[in-house]
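ARCHIVE CARD
Drawer: 12
Card no.: 0347
Subject: one protein chain, sequence and derived structure
Cross-reference: see card 0346
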Amino acid sequence: VSVVKAPAWARSTQDADGPPDDPQTLANFIRLLFDEINAGDRPEDRALYGEYIDAIEIWNEPNLQREWTGRLPFSGAGYMQLFAPAYQAVRSYSSTVPIITAGLAPTGNNPGSVDDREFLRQMYAAGLANYPDVLIGIHPYSWANSPDAVCCGTRGWDDDPHFFFADTLREYRSIIAAAGHNTRMWITEVGYATWDGFPNQPPPGSEWMRFNTMWDQANYTLRMVELAQTSGDIENVILWNLNFAVLSGLVENADERIAYSMIVPGTLCIIEPGSTNRTERPLYWMLYDALRPDIQLPGYCG
C-alpha cells in the first residue's frame, strides 16, 4: 500500500499534489485504513481477513515539488515530519508489517526537484536512522543504460550518475552505511521504457526512449532483477508498469508512461493504436518464463 496525494480538504493549496498541511491527518487515515480491514497482529484478525497489507510505503517521490507542494518544508526534514506520525500509526496496529520510506525520484537539484542523494542525507540528519525496522525505498531508473553500466558516456542521458541503476544503488548504499543504519532497500518503482512500435515521437525530454528496443527493455529488466536478487540488501522489486498503454488516449497523446508498459494495444508484439486487441511485449513472457521453467514457451511474441 502506498498512500499519496492528499485530498483538497486536507491542503491549504490546490497547486500540484502534496502532503496534508497537518501530518497527523495522514496518520489518522492510515489508522482508518487499518480499522476498515481489521489488519493487525492478532491471530483472529488474520484468520478473518487474511493479510491484505504486505507492506506500507509512506508517500512517493517527495523530492519532486509536484509531489510535495504544501506547507511542509520541501526537504528530507520536511518529509520526516510526515513520516514520524505515519510510522507510529502503522506500528500501533502491527509490529511486523514492513514500513518503507518514500521512493525518491533519481534526479539532481533543479527547479522543482531536490537531488535524491541529498534528500536521503537530509532524512538521516532528521532522524531516519532512529527507526531500525524501516526499509529504504528507492527508484533506480536507468533510462537507456543497462543495469550493469556505470556513468558516464557522451550520447546524452548517460552523462550523469542519476541515469544509472548501478550508480544509484552504490550511492544509496554508501549513504545508508555512513548513517550507521542496518537496513535493506525496497525498489518500489523501476522500469525500462522503449518507444519501439509507437507512432510519432516520444514527448520532449524523453527522446532517449528510442535508444531501447522492446528486446532491450526485456533483457535489461531481467538482468536488473537478477542483480537485485543476488545483491543481499534488496528485498523486493516492483516494476513500472503493466498496462498503461491500453488506457484511453495515452498512446494517441504520446504519454511517456506508455513506453514502460508490458501490455499494449495490438497483436503479436505489434502495436496497433486504437485497437481493442491486447498483446504482450517480450518482457511479459520473459518474466513468466523465468518464474515457470517447467512451462516450455514457443516464443515471446506469439
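Annotation on reverse: Strands lie at 2-3, 56-58, 99-101, 134-138, 185-190, 234-239, 263-267, 270-271, 278-280. The chain has seven helices and nine strands.
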